[in-house]
Amino acid sequence: MTVKKNKASARSILVLFMIFGLSFGTYNLVFMMKHNKGGSGVTVTDELGFLGPIIRMHDEKLMMRAANSNSKKFHVAVTATDAAYSQWQCRIMYYWYEKVKDMPGSGMGKFTRIVHSGKPDQLMDEIPSFVVDPLPAGLDRGYVVMNRPWAFVQWLEKTDIEEEYILMAEPDHIFVNPLPNLVYGNQPAGYPFFYIKPAKHEKLIRKFYPEGNGPITNVDPIGNSPVIIQKSLLEEISPTWVNISLQMKDDPATDETFGWVLEMYAYAVASALHGVRHTLHDNFMLQPPWDLDVGNKFIIHYTYACDYNLKGELTYGKTGEWRFNKRSYLTGPPPKNLSLPPPGVPESVVRLVTMVNEATANIHKWDSLNKS
């Protein structure tokens, strides 16, 4: 099952494989891990270990590096479907992109929503969008994220992108601070996910990244998003990313172990196969409710449910007396003016809800669009 880089038609070279579908579920609970109760909420190391170089952008020298790279803008690209659930998230994301893209320190260039549903939708005139085909019927095995690498292959082949760099983003990203171009030299910028652990799963990883390719530490603990990368590198990696995703999905043990993050591991492996290492920025993104403070972080990723009792205590895994969970709005957008969290809830969660409320109050026809 291979995809080759071919400007004529990459799709014609894709070989179909069938496997049992992957059921959707409460994957959110899979990622329940032990976190710190203070600070950033996630413990990482600054040493050059299996996590690779961890960069903290409050370092003055590193901020100067980013400022020097800012003359080279990056294109913001988000992959999405035409489902209501994806649409309302993209509308909020684009609202905040528009708010911060021209602020001092921003390296943001143009924006594209890459719609991998195969047909235009009602947001084409609101958000700059490009329609690509989904994988052939049945090939995603019910795992819709498999369409992401295939979407990038098509988009990169069929469009002329002005910027030299690309930010791969997701619909549930909100730009909380203007994002600089974090790339330094030819090394892409990525985010270290605490649950992506190549060394822990070396036996599985070696099926796709043999020992002859190098040590397991060459596989970064990342997904494809958020990543800022040179366009030319992404053009090289993307077809391999498609193939590794399909191969991992076709391997029962790997599929069962990696589950919803399979495509993230596939990107990490594909990058390593091309000899690409990422500089890891732990403040690239924050993830409420685990990360407590916004500080100098750049993106809020609201994938986790935020559940609290009225005392402001986290009740994760149990529906709280107050909650914000994007999965509560699978068939239509959240209402305007969501209630703010009770006293004692971390700043990150308050900021998230406040930003959602601002977006929904100002986006035209918020209540009438994006309903299934």
Automatic annotation (TrEMBL):
Entry keyword Transmembrane: yes
Domain Hydroxyproline O-arabinosyltransferase-like residues, every copy: 74-367
Domain of life: Eukaryota
InterPro entries: HPAT-like, HPAT/SRGT1-like
Subcellular localization: Membrane
Gene Ontology molecular function: any one: glycosyltransferase activity
Transferase in keyword set: yes
GO cellular component, one term: membrane
Residues annotated as transmembrane: 12-33
Organism (species): Clitoria ternatea
Keywords, sorted A to Z: Glycosyltransferase, Membrane, Transferase, Transmembrane, Transmembrane helix
PANTHER family, per the entry: HYDROXYPROLINE O-ARABINOSYLTRANSFERASE RDN1 (PTHR31485:SF4), PEPTIDYL SERINE ALPHA-GALACTOSYLTRANSFERASE (PTHR31485)
Protein name (Swiss-Prot/TrEMBL): Hydroxyproline O-arabinosyltransferase-like domain-containing protein
Alphabetical list of Pfam families matching this protein: HPAT (PF23452)
Membrane topology type: Single-pass membrane protein
